[in-house]
Structures are given as structure tokens and as C-alpha cells.
Amino acid sequence: MPASLPMEAECTPACPIAAASEILSGKWTTLIFRDLFRGTRRYSELQVSLAGISPRILAERLRMLEDQGLVHRKVIPTVPPRTEYTLTEKGRRIEPVLVAMAGFGQMLQEATLPEADRDGMASLEGMAGAGEGARLGATAE
């Protein structure tokens, strides 16, 4: 991992940030990753979880992620056929990026809450031990 951000004067195809941005661009891609970090998902489960995504866009994004070697697609020969999607080892390497995005998103949400709501949120998080060793997709069971 680079020690610092690459700061080329121009955005070229050799820029690693441009390469990552090409994969992560679009409204739904990071949310597909979020869902797949929870484990293997069927196409229909992804469609329900990603309320508002069109079947065409979901299929395009999944195909692109599969073409990039980030997602594995498994077709189960049943009637009707079932399709399952799982992150590959390469796809799992995006976890630190999504964890950072989640932290940044939480900071943005907290910054827009009135002070009284922030105080209540902080006390609830403290009681639950939030933020201590949390991992993306982990659930409290």
C-alpha cells in the first residue's frame, strides 16, 4: 500500500486512484460490495437489499465486477436457475476502503445531527462498545 497519496499533475490511466475510481464509480457498486461482505448472496437478495436499483443496472454492475475478478458468479442449475455471487479474494481487498468510507459517512451524519442527538448517539455507542475492533459486515450475535 502506498505510504502517501499519488499526486500526479494529470489524471492518467496509470494513476492508481483513477483505476480504483473506475471500478467504484456509480451509485450502486459500493453498496453491492457492502452486501457481499456479509456473505454469498443470490441475485434476488441483492435486488431486494438495494431498493431502487433496476435489474439492468444490477446485472451490469455484477458483470463488470465479475469481469474484473472481484466477484465470483455461480449458476445453480435448478428450475428456475439460481445465481449466487461471492466476493473473490481480490474483491475482499477493498474492505479497508469501505471501512474508511463508513467512518467518513458516520462522521458526516454526526456532523449534521443537532447537538442533543449527538450526545444521545455517543452515549449509546459507548454502552455498546461501538468502534472497538468493528469489521465491515460483522453482526452482534
Automatic annotation (TrEMBL):
One of its GO terms (molecular function) is DNA binding. It comes from the Bacteria. Residues 15-113 form the HTH hxlR-type domain. SUPFAM superfamilies: Winged helix' DNA-binding domain. Keywords: DNA-binding, Transcription, Transcription regulation. InterPro entries: HTH_HxlR, WH-like_DNA-bd_sf, WH_DNA-bd_sf. This is Helix-turn-helix transcriptional regulator.
